[in-house]
């Protein structure tokens, strides 16, 4: 597939893993938390268990804030590893998320996209207060931020995307969504039919077996070239 159809008014983005260094930041936060517990703890195995609980909690009703989800997921992961949980542990995690920096190429690329006339929005599985610190690092180029807290639902639910499009005053034909998460964002693209670009940063996350995004790039700074190839901006 390639990017075809009308030029989008908006480019929408996943935040963590797409614009912000999520894996690196999460590993650092977990290292800080787990090192205080003592013992030889496999951090990657721990994060895998944490992720499992996080995604399961995001699907439950009633809706929980991401601060609540992350705290409960952390508590449950620690229980599986026989570790004591303290409220301060979850505070370290949530405070660390907002401090996670963008990938090196992100701010300059956002500036280029904004200069080309696109409006830029983030659609993210987080809370307003948590993501504020990340957005503040993006050079002032982001026009709108839509969170799971605002929508009352987490990706890949269609609810958060419909909330975003309603908030932006557009239909899905007016956007291209750029993301790094195949099982959240690309799953929604498969269900809803919006145009998508997948940033495959080589993290080991696998594409969906029954869906192919319109374009695949290795890093965010390759996005302008594919938009130019579609005739939507100058090379």
Quickly describe the structure.
This protein has 235 residues and is of the alpha/beta class. The chain is 47% helix and 11% strand.
Task: Reconstruct the topology from this structure.
Layout: E1 10-13, H1 22-35, H2 43-59, H3 66-80, H4 87-99, H5 106-115, E2 119-124, H6 128-135, E3 144-147, H7 148-151, H8 158-168, E4 175-179, H9 182-192, E5 195-199, E6 215-217, H10 223-229
Parallel strand pairs: 1-2, 1-4, 2-3, 4-5, 5-6
Helix pairs in contact: 1-4, 2-3, 3-4, 4-6
- Helix and strand content put the structural class at alpha/beta
Mean pLDDT: 96
The termini sit apart by: 21 Å
Q: Name the poorly predicted regions.
A: none
Count of beta strands: 6
Percent strand: 5-15%
Give the helix level as a range of percent: 40-55%
Q: What is the N-to-C succession of helices and strands?
A: EHHHHHEHEHHEHEEH
Largest sheet data: 6 strands, parallel
The helix count comes to 10
Gyration radius, to the nearest Å?
18 Å
The shape, in one word, is: globular
Could you explain the architecture of this structure?
- With 235 residues, the chain is of the alpha/beta class.
- The protein contains ten helices and six strands; from the N terminus they run E-H-H-H-H-H-E-H-E-H-H-E-H-E-E-H.
- A six-stranded parallel beta sheet has the order 3-2-1-4-5-6, sandwiched between helices.
- Helix 4 runs parallel beside helix 6 (128-135).
- The model has no long low-confidence stretch (mean pLDDT 96).
């Amino acid at each position: 597939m390639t990017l075809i159809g009308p030029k989008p008014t908006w480019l929408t983005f996943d935040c963590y893993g797409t614009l912000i260094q999520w894996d690196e930041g999460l590993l650092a936060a977990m290292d800080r938390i787990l090192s205080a517990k003592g013992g030889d703890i496999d951090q990657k195995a721990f994060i895998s268990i944490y992720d499992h609980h996080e995604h399961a909690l995001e699907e439950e009703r009633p809706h929980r804030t991401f601060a609540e989800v992350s705290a409960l997921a952390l508590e449950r992961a620690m229980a599986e590893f026989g570790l004591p949980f303290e409220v301060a542990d979850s505070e370290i995690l949530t405070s660390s998320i907002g401090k996670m920096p963008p990938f090196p190429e992100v701010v300059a690329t956002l500036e280029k996209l904004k200069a080309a006339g696109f409006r830029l929005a983030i659609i993210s599985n987080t809370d307003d207060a948590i993501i504020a610190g990340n957005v503040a690092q993006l050079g002032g180029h982001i026009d709108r931020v839509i969170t799971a807290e605002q929508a009352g639902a987490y990706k890949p639910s269609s609810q958060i995307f419909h909330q975003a499009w309603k908030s932006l005053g557009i239909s899905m034909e007016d956007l291209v969504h750029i993301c790094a998460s195949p099982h959240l964002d690309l799953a929604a693209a498969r269900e809803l039919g919006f145009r998508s670009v997948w940033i495959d940063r080589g993290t080991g996350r696998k594409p969906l077996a029954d869906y192919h995004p319109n374009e695949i790039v290795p890093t965010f700074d390759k996005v302008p070239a594919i938009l130019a190839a579609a005739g939507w901006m100058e090379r």
